[in-house]
Specification:
Blueprint lengths: L14 H8 L18 H7 L20 E9 L4 H19 L33 E6 L1 H4 L38 E7 L2 H14 L4 E12 L28 H7 L15 E10 L1 H5 L3 H8 L23 E2 L2 E2 L6 H4 L11 E2 L2 E7 L5 E11 L6 H11 L6 E11 L11 H4 L2
Antiparallel strand pairs: 1-3, 1-4, 2-3, 4-9, 5-10, 5-11, 6-7, 8-10, 9-10
Helix pairs in contact: 1-3, 3-5
């Protein structure tokens, strides 16, 4: 990221000091030095693109999905509402700076002097913005703890739709990879840019919050814009062909954005974020015949076309039968997840592949970090997952090992900070 020409003081910058010195308005970074990472003018221009941070809705939801992810979930340790709000304000200014291509604090990597800890960790110096987006959400226990304590005076503002997901058939959830009180999703086309953003937000939160769990992702597994081609997951199949696209405004309004009349007014223009860490049993899958793989998914592996069709975007025919039964098997993944089978339910998917080494038994710890945005997880995601958990032929090859849900507030106006609608007096 471009180094700021602003001058920081010789002393360290506190959360309140950062708020005072950074200012709200941050100009977008120019093309900048690309550090040799880009090979053509077209790719350089894409890497230098800045996604607006302040808008009606938060960036990173219908934004055309970037290629890399760093998702972090925090537990909150402070019991002071003022300290939490102060941190959210600081995070907001830092996020706006970093998504614009600047350091987390003005001249933060070296400006504090040699005998002060830097206020920016420095690994993104000279890197371009890479379409970085930062999206925040709040978990159920931020509003009331497990024993019913309202630490921050916001229990009455907890939406009815924000509740821990039920245990689904086959779940093998690891508590260390589930739940949490604040989620921050960093997406970018450069992994170092995404990691830098999370690292610096976690750094200034020390003492007030700590990282509960995090997940790196690569290779988006869905398209959120008609301008994008369909990506593939680690099973080798195109993923998210029928995903909601940003250009489908009526569908987005119906299934993604919360309406003021839904429940809590502070959530208007926001959404709900569901994450599921889905481990793929790669080795058994790789020994399965192509015919069986396609039966399980319900699409051809090469073109991504529905069974019995020729093109990826051909209609999903759930009625016709072939010589050996339905063209799309009754337990095929695409059938059970389809709007046709679920009374019209849709969600906006925004997941990523992951590979986290091996499990100590010679098996890859790899799979899909599933991310979905929806207007109400209880009426959209839950019935969909219940249908899949009970009947999906793919369950033989996958295992759900992590889960969380968060309320994602609306976007920010000129004077807003992350969570300002929630914490407004």
């Amino acid at each position: 990221m471009s180094r700021d020409r602003e001058t920081a003081g010789r002393g360290g910058i506190s959360r309140r000091g950062l708020i005072g010195s950074a200012g709200i308005g941050v100009a977008a970074a120019g093309a900048g030095v690309l550090a040799g990472r880009m090979s053509s003018p077209a790719s350089a221009a894409a890497a230098s693109a800045v996604v607006p941070f302040r808008a009606v809705n938060q960036a990173g939801i219908v934004t055309p999905a970037q290629d890399r992810l760093h998702f972090a979930v925090f537990d909150v340790h402070t019991r002071s509402r003022a300290e939490l709000v102060d941190l959210l304000k600081t995070w907001t200014l830092m996020a706006e700076r970093m998504t614009s291509g600047h350091e987390a604090a003005p001249n933060g990597a070296i400006g504090a002097g040699t005998y002060k800890p830097p206020t920016d960790t420095g690994e993104a110096l000279d890197l371009s913005p890479s379409r970085l987006t930062l999206t925040i959400g709040f978990g159920p226990s931020l509003f009331t703890t497990a024993d019913g304590v309202d630490r921050f005076g916001i229990a009455s503002r907890k939406p009815k739709a924000l509740t821990d997901l039920p245990k689904f058939t086959g779940d093998a959830l690891d508590p260390a990879r589930s739940g949490g009180e604040i989620a921050i999703q960093a997406c970018a086309d450069d992994p170092q840019v995404a990691v830098h953003a999370i690292r610096n937000l976690a750094r200034v939160g020390f003492g007030a919050v700590s990282v509960r769990w995090s997940q790196l992702g690569f290779g988006r597994t869905s398209s959120t814009s008609t301008s994008q081609v369909t990506a593939r997951n680690l099973l080798g199949f195109k993923d998210g062909t029928r995903n909601i696209k940003a250009e489908e405004h009526d569908t987005v309004d119906k299934f993604v954005w919360v309406d003021r009349g839904d429940d809590q007014a502070w959530m208007a223009g926001g959404s709900y974020l569901v994450t599921r860490r889905i481990r793929m049993l790669i080795e058994p899958w790789d020994r399965t015949t192509l015919h069986e793989q396609e039966r399980v998914i319900g699409r051809t592996k090469g073109t991504g076309a529905p069974m019995g069709a020729k093109d990826e975007f051909d209609e999903l025919d759930l009625q016709s039968a072939g010589p050996s039964g339905p063209l799309v098997d009754k337990n095929a993944h695409v059938r059970l997840a389809s709007a046709e089978e679920l009374g019209g339910i849709q969600i906006l998917r925004r997941g990523y592949n992951f590979t986290d080494g091996s499990d100590g038994f010679g098996h890859l710890d790899a799979g899909l970090f599933f991310i979905a945005y929806c207007r109400n997880p209880l009426t959209q995601f839950v019935p969909m997952q219940e249908n899949l958990a009970r009947n999906d032929a793919l369950n033989e090859y996958i295992k759900h090992v992590g889960s969380a849900v968060f309320a994602v507030p609306p976007g920010l106006g000129a004077d807003d900070y992350w969570g300002s609608t929630l914490f407004a007096s």
